[in-house]
């Protein structure tokens, strides 16, 4: 018996169900590999990524995210062929005794995707009130929104660059994405317990030794709009208000607090236009509000250099990190006691962190969940869901991985996530002339639900023997959580597209597709999708490229087209991660038995995860 066969017998007896089971058990864990970002030099991937972003608009049932989707395509001098996988696909309601291979997916061409006449009509009518007709709806399915976007692109490629249709395109996208925009704004204004600009006003800026000057190119109306909020003088009348001029803006000890107050009022106004999604149905913003909101976002992008300077000043990093730590401590205390804490005095605040680094290195935890592996944090990590919300910050910031390592960097990423739709629309608008005369084809790929497999009653005992420190036998809750994640496992959209492309290449040869297959996703992909890309690239003439990974593990169903040898490799990698988690639990149990810290203090591992910026 081979090592693969032996391992399969020890676990479930089927490599597919092994992967589902192991990924369910590890749901929420984050593998300690470097975060990988999108290759921004890959023009095809960039184009598909921005298309993916404007497909992300939310709806009443899911305001934080739209249907998770992946976008691939083939681009050559005469044609653009776009392929979109609809969403992460779950399981059937009927149980089977053995793991069955999912049924083939269905490929559907969107026949009217190049209807430029309808695209022009969509832009012409964007400002009309929402109604029941096909042009104005509260909610759009991914398929319908995809059709509309390509019809609009088909029209825009025939327009002059100065045509008002390009501005209408920006307005239409932001009006449809109003829920998602509102969530981004609300999250930014509350993540630090207060507006981060209010938090930063507590910094002692008397240490500023020099002033800073920024040059920004603005038209007169843009300048005047900024003068309403920021410490700059109003202009005298200009002969040509649309001429862009280089203006110098000064940031110094005398006005830095006024700049921060201006940014705060700027975002509060933006929140009135795009409020946070509520439990009830929200009103679609009026056309006037959308126009104002888009102009606010446009100005926010222009003045980014100013907030970057303020965040680089001494004291800004420490103040934001302290606010982050306090919010996490409050959240943890509420989870433990059920009581909401509103002030530092209400509970024992964590001690300084600098003296704890040596002890953490000795403990040597290398595989972490979204927060450190303690009971309260495990619950949160295990409930981390791939479908929760989209992360669009990478579209706006060039170096989002390094920025995410600091509190000021995380603030900047959160602040400019609201600009993702504008950046995406502008990117496509600037390149739309390249599409002139090219054939546009759009396909929609739907993956069939996977058969749901019954769990072997003996599995708990097997897992407990293999991984005794996981506590699966002693703590029924942990095993029940694994079964819950197993029941919610999905075929991820990007994995489904990789499986489809791999099968097409095997059946028709590499000439069916270009060798480089870029796949954009509405969020960074998970650890298993990234691992699948690596394994397929090692064995296939096709070379897949994904937009980066956060290295998180989620309950994951293998696509039907993935060959068995690669499935075994994926299963073995999951086993390696699980063994490390098992050893990590053992070390934490030992450390807990020897821990002399007061019970009311925030635990060591949790504090250090905050210092490193790992928590969620």
TrEMBL record:
Pfam assignment, any one: OTT_1508_deam
Bias kind Acidic residues: ranges: 372-394
Region (Disordered): 351-401
Identification of the protein by name: Uncharacterized protein
């Amino acid at each position: 018996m081979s090592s693969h066969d032996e391992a399969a017998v020890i676990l479930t007896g089927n490599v597919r169900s092994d992967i589902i089971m192991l990924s369910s058990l590890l749901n929420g864990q984050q593998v300690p590999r470097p975060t990988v970002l999108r290759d921004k030099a890959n023009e095809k991937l960039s184009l598909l990524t921005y298309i993916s972003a404007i497909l992300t608009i939310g709806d009443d049932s899911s305001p934080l995210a739209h249907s998770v989707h992946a976008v691939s395509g083939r681009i050559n001098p005469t044609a653009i062929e776009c392929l979109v996988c609809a969403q992460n696909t779950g399981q059937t309601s009927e149980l089977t005794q053995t793991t069955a291979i999912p049924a083939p997916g269905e490929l559907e061409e969107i026949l009217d995707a190049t209807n430029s006449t309808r695209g022009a009509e969509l832009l012409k009518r964007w400002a009309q009130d929402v109604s029941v007709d096909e042009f104005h709806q509260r909610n759009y399915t991914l398929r319908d929104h995809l059709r509309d976007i390509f019809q609009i692109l088909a029209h825009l490629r025939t327009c002059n660059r100065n045509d008002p249709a390009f501005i209408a395109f920006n307005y239409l996208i932001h009006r449809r994405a109003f829920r998602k925009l509102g969530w981004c704004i609300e999250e930014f204004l509350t993540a630090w317990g207060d507006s981060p600009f209010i938090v930063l006003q507590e910094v002692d800026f008397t240490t500023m030794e020099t002033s800073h000057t920024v040059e920004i190119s603005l038209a007169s109306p843009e300048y005047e709009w900024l003068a309403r909020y920021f410490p700059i003088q109003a202009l005298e009348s200009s002969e040509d208000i649309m001429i862009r001029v280089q203006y110098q803006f000064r940031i110094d000890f005398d006005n830095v607090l006024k700049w921060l107050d201006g940014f705060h009022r700027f975002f509060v106004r933006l929140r009135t236009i795009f409020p946070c999604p509520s439990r009830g149905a929200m009103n679609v913003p009026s056309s006037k509000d959308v126009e104002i909101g888009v102009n606010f976002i446009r100005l926010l992008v222009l003045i980014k250099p100013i907030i970057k300077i303020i965040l680089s000043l001494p004291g800004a990093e420490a103040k934001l990190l302290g606010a982050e730590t306090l919010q996490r401590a409050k959240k943890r205390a509420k989870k433990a006691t059920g009581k909401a804490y509103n002030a530092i005095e209400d509970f024992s605040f964590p001690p300084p962190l600098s003296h704890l680094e040596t002890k953490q290195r000795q403990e040597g935890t290398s595989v972490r969940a979204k927060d450190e592996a303690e009971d309260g944090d495990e619950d949160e990590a295990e409930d981390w869901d791939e479908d929760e919300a989209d992360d669009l910050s990478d579209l706006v910031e060039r170096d989002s991985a390094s920025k995410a390592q600091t509190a000021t960097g995380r603030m900047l990423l959160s602040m400019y996530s609201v600009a993702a739709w504008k950046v995406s629309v502008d990117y496509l608008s600037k390149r739309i002339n390249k599409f002139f005369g090219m054939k546009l084809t759009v396909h929609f790929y739907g993956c069939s639900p996977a058969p749901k497999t019954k769990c072997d009653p003996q599995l708990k005992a097997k897992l407990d023997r293999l991984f005794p420190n996981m506590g699966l036998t002693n703590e029924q809750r942990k095993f029940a959580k694994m079964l819950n994640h197993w029941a919610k496992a999905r075929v991820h959209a990007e994995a489904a597209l990789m499986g489809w492309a791999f099968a097409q290449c095997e059946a028709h040869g590499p000439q069916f597709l270009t060798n480089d297959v870029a796949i954009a996703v509405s969020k960074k992909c998970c650890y298993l999708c990234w691992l699948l890309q690596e394994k397929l690239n090692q064995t296939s003439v096709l070379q897949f490229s994904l937009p980066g990974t956060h290295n998180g593990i989620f309950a994951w169903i293998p696509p039907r087209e993935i060959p068995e040898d690669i499935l075994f490799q994926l299963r073995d990698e999951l086993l390696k991660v699980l063994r490390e988690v098992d050893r990590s639990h053992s070390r934490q149990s030992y450390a807990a038995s020897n821990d002399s810290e007061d019970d009311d203090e925030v635990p060591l591992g949790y504090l250090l995860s905050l210092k490193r910026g790992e928590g969620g």
